[in-house]
Design goal:
The structure holds 2 protein chains of 2 kinds.
Chain A: E1 2-10, H1 48-60, E2 68-70, E3 72-75, E4 85-88, E5 95-102, E6 105-116, E7 120-124, E8 131-135, E9 142-148, H2 155-173, H3 177-181, E10 184-190, E11 196-202, H4 204-223, E12 231-236, E13 241-244, H5 247-250, E14 257-258, E15 264-266, H6 268-273, H7 280-291, H8 295-304, H9 306-319, H10 321-332, H11 335-338, H12 344-358, H13 364-375, H14 378-384, H15 392-410, H16 414-420, H17 425-436, H18 442-455
Parallel strand pairs in A: 11-12
Antiparallel strand pairs in A: 1-9, 1-10, 2-15, 3-4, 3-14, 5-6, 6-9, 7-8, 10-11, 12-13
Chain B: H1 3-16, E1 19-22, E2 33-38, H2 65-72, E3 75-81, E4 101-102, E5 105-109, H3 115-123, E6 128-133, H4 139-145, E7 148-151, E8 171-176, H5 179-189, E9 213-217, H6 226-240, E10 246-250, H7 258-273, H8 293-304, H9 307-319, H10 325-349, E11 352-356, H11 365-370, H12 373-378, H13 384-389, E12 393-401, E13 404-412, H14 417-430
Parallel strand pairs in B: 2-3, 2-6, 9-10, 9-11
Antiparallel strand pairs in B: 1-3, 4-5, 6-8, 7-8, 7-12, 11-13, 12-13
Helix pairs in contact in B: 3-4, 5-14, 7-9, 7-10
The chains are: A alpha+beta, B alpha/beta.
């Protein structure tokens, strides 16, 4: 079985590919201008940040970067395509003939090119009276397309490959987790001789499913000696099957010509100046070698956060890998919640705690308490005290009643208000919620506040 | 400009049809100078149709860069001039609206595609017309109407706000009754513009030493009728004698391949540039919205485009199809590079090139009607090479034949507009340009 992928990733630039419209959307058709609406007389200007990201990815995949690159017009008529041609790259894309080291196996990269996204269409109205509404906010959004050679040999491998690739892409161009969700792929798969393309599959899970379905379908066809047609199919996410699309939809002649409105870009010097930092997977490999981490641990670490890796390496250098791993493990648990507020002083505090633990100044459980205090994760305090957090009486002991009492003191007229209208309780509930910072569920707080109010002053 | 002069222009327009739309307001009175813009340059206060029904009624949200810079220097826009639809033509007869008539004989064509612009330059005193040239659309009507038509280097003037025909060929140019007024106003619109990445600031427009040697490409005289050649040769004697320039013959063999290469590149680009006209966000709208989009586009485009536009869209679509792209489009790009190289070689031994502008005087409308599309395309034989190579050029009136003006065309190397304009101003002084009977 041979599988090749064409992967589309939206580049996280602040403005669109060929105009200065913002990329963060808004109400339909609010982030548009004459250029991305394809108005007569308007013309494109290349967003340098998009070109730079394209070059960084070309370098990430060890592509050959040409001295000169240019864009092309891909002409087809569709209502969401403002100019009825898409500005993309055909000859001389930003990168060609690269490779990606996928867990020891080389997957060849045929090309990396830049292009603009078309707008999007929403159908509205009752069946039979449907309207098609076009939103051009997406028109001109910057995309990179990465095309692999058919070097993958199973749907599961394809998924793992794409997952690894996204880890590297994310770090190289600063893609957010959300950006990853919207990755689109065209998947080429052949079990026998003939190749089938499944167009426009969104997300990793759907890609694996579509490929599996297609692998089984082709195998069955071949077993029953029926020919597999060379065709384009699409993946139906609801029914979880691939279906053939009308030939015309995808296989027309796009009549590529050079995009004369943009000119030619000399990019080799620019590419040479760009230094890609160590990527997550390169770092994972180094952590394995340098500190003797298990592969899965190293990968988990880089996948959680490169910032966390920095902390790990700082501790490992002075205190040894064992202590570093212990502490990093405890920080990684609540990482998602603390990552935005994790500043240098927090890092220093964590390091100090780790150092004390290393000097045997504090015990294992004392370390845990210290860390949770630094990170501001109250629940773990209770857990480390060995208390059953599900037992509401335990929580009460720790603070709910105290918090309610404090709120009552600060609102002297609350009992009178409550007598007139029970909704006055909401004020107290809000304050308690705030002061306990998510430690208790809403139900618990409501119950405690109402109980206290019904007792009277 | 007072009301009576404006009324006089209005009256001329009724007879000659050079304007698609004329300004009304009093702002014209206080202006430093007046200019018109070919109707494929966007203007916020006038419809911009490029002579096409497809854009009938469209008011653009921005001014073209060239219009903006002339307005910024105190110029007032007098109106929008008639043209062949999207610039597709040599005689300005391919318009969905008015066909301009020659200022020296109303039964004859103004030339094209900037026909209205040349006509306005001939009929209105002290007037500057903005034209656009893709393959000769400034030189040709200038020659036919007996005015000066100047086309700068590709990229010298921003194309922001120009309704594209062939994006790698389109150049905003100027037409006027003399070269001095062009030389005075041209610096206003020369220079780079962030909104057009193909506009260029290097080298800046500057004064070089005047030209000393003029080359006449021998290919440009092949097939020119005797009587036209005689007028040209007389002018050449003035260039040699009065102006004191050395005249040499030069050889540019690729000249003869410029025309097919031009039509392939121009129509390939045009067929993609015109793809955007689908009746969705501006201009013409289709009646039947309750249909498949394919059918909707077909309906709008069938009704909105004229015959010549359709012919060029078909031609250009054909030349970029798989299997033909290599044979036509890519080969044409190579011809263009070869032509530029040969021009360069020629400019090593001379400062300017000189040739007749058109192989005949402005034809009568009945003669135009009798011409086949191929014959019409071949009429651009002399204006195409500098346009294909992006070289600046200027057409100057150089005599008459049967009472109709003839033109000659100087071409300079890339960015050497100053030499052209200097030669043009010299020529102004030494020549009597034809004056039409009616003027305002």
């Amino acid at each position: 079985m041979r599988i090749g992928l064409e992967i589309h990733v939206q580049l996280p630039t602040r403005s669109k590919m060929f105009c200065s419209c913002p990329t963060d959307g808004g109400p339909p058709n609010s982030a548009v201008c004459p250029t991305c609406l394809g108005m007569p007389g308007s013309r494109p200007t290349l967003n340098r940040a998009a070109l730079e990201m394209g070059l960084r990815l070309a370098k990430l995949f060890d592509c050959q970067v040409p001295e000169r690159t240019w864009f092309a017009r891909k002409t087809y008529f569709y209502p969401d395509l403002a100019k009825h041609y898409q500005v993309t790259q055909h000859d001389n894309p930003v990168g060609e003939h690269g490779a990606f080291d996928f867990r020891g196996k080389e997957v060849r990269i045929r090309r990396v090119h830049l292009e603009e996204d078309p707008g999007s269409i929403r159908r509205a109205g009752r069946p039979g009276e449907e309207l098609s509404l076009v939103d051009y906010n997406r028109s001109g959004m910057p995309l990179v397309e990465i095309v692999t050679e058919p070097d993958l040999s199973s749907p599961a491998e394809a998924r793992q490959f794409l997952s690894d690739m996204l880890t590297e892409i994310r770090h190289t161009i600063g893609l957010s987790g959300e950006g990853e969700q919207t990755v689109r792929a065209d998947c080429n798969i052949s079990v026998g001789e003939e190749r089938v393309e499944v167009k426009n599959v969104t997300g990793l899970k759907n890609m694996e499913r579509a490929l599996k379905y297609e692998a089984v379908r082709q195998t069955k066809m071949l077993r029953s000696r029926r020919p597999v047609l060379r065709e384009t199919r699409r993946y139906d996410e609801e029914r979880k099957v691939t279906v053939a699309v009308r030939k015309k939809e995808f296989e027309e002649d796009y009549g590529y010509i050079g995009e004369p409105d943009l000119g030619v870009f000399h990019i080799r010097a620019m590419a040479e100046e760009l230094e890609n930092k160590e990527t997550p997977l390169e770092r994972a490999r180094r952590l394995e070698l340098q500190y003797g981490l298990a592969e899965s641990t190293a990968r988990q670490l880089v996948n959680t956060s490169m910032r966390l890796c920095d902390l790990f390496e700082r501790m490992a250098a002075d205190l040894g890998a064992k202590v570093a791993l212990n502490v990093t493990g405890q920080v990684s648990g609540p990482w998602f919640h603390v990552k935005d507020s994790f500043d240098q002083s927090m890092e220093d505090a964590v390091f100090e705690a780790a150092e004390e633990f290393w000097r045997d100044g504090i015990t294992d459980s004392e370390l845990t308490i210290r860390l949770s205090k630094i990170l501001g994760t109250h629940v773990t305090v209770e857990e480390t005290l060995g208390l059953d957090v599900e037992d509401s009486s335990v929580k009460d002991r720790i603070g709910l009643n105290e918090a309610v009492e404090k709120a009552v003191e600060e609102n002297p007229g609350i009992f009178e208000d409550y007598a007139k209208n029970e909704r006055a309780a909401n004020r107290l509930i809000g304050e308690v919620k705030k002061s306990t910072g998510g430690t208790f569920s809403s139900q618990e707080i409501v119950a405690a506040v109402k109980a206290r109010l019904s007792q009277g002053p | 400009m007072n009301a009576s002069r404006l009324e006089a222009i209005r009256e001329l327009d009724r007879d000659y049809g050079m304007f698609y739309s004329l300004s009304e307001d009093a702002a014209l009175e206080s202006a430093e100078f007046h200019f018109s813009a070919k109707d494929n340059l966007t203007t916020v206060d006038h419809e911009t149709t490029a002579g096409s029904r497809m854009l009938s009624g469209w008011r653009p949200p921005f001014d073209a860069a060239a219009v903006e810079s002339l307005r910024g220097a105190g110029g007032a826009l007098l109106g929008k001039t008639s043209m062949d639809e999207f610039g597709f033509g040599t005689f300005s007869v391919n318009s969905a609206f008015a066909v301009p008539r020659n200022p020296h004989d109303r039964e004859r064509s103004c030339g094209g595609s900037s026909g209205g612009a040349a006509c306005a330059a001939a009929l209105i005193d002290g007037h500057i017309s903005l034209g656009v040239s893709t393959g000769g659309s400034v030189s040709c009507p200038a020659a036919f109407c007996g005015v000066v038509g100047f086309t700068p280097t590709y990229g010298r003037v921003s194309r922001h706000g120009l309704l594209d025909y062939g994006s790698s060929l389109d150049k905003v140019g100027m037409l006027s009754a003399d070269c001095a007024s062009i030389a005075e106003r041209f610096p206003l619109m020369a220079g780079p513009d962030r909104r057009d990445p193909t506009s260029c600031g290097h080298p800046e427009h500057s004064e070089r030493s005047a030209a000393r040697t003029v080359g006449v490409p021998k290919q440009s005289l092949q097939g020119i009728p005797e009587d036209v050649l005689a007028v040209f040769n007389e002018a050449l004697e003035v260039v040699r004698g009065d102006m004191g320039l050395d005249v040499v013959e030069v050889d540019i063999p690729v000249f003869n391949y410029a025309q097919p290469a031009y039509y392939i590149i121009a129509t390939s680009e045009a067929s993609t540039n015109l793809a955007r006209y689908g009746g969705m966000r501006y201009g013409a709208r289709g009646e039947d919205l309750d249909t498949h989009f394919d059918r909707y586009f077909r309906q709008v485009r069938s009704a909105g485009f004229g015959g010549e536009a359709k012919r060029r869209i078909l031609l250009g679509t054909f030349t970029r199809m798989v299997g033909y792209r290599d044979r036509y489009y890519l080969k044409a790009l190579q011809v263009r590079q070869a032509l530029i190289a040969e021009y360069r070689r020629a400019f090593a031994s001379c400062d300017l090139l000189l040739a007749p502008t058109m192989p005949f005087v402005a034809p009568r409308f009945d003669e135009v009607e009798a011409m086949s599309p191929l014959e019409i395309y071949l009429a651009d034989h002399l204006t195409i090479p500098p346009n294909l190579a992006g070289m600046p050029h200027i057409s100057l009136p150089c005599g008459e034949l049967d009472g109709m003006p003839l033109g000659m065309q100087f071409t300079a190397d890339h960015w050497h507009e100053d030499r052209l304009l200097k030669a043009g101003v010299e020529w102004d002084r030494r020549s009597e340009y034809p004056v039409p009977e009616a003027r305002a």
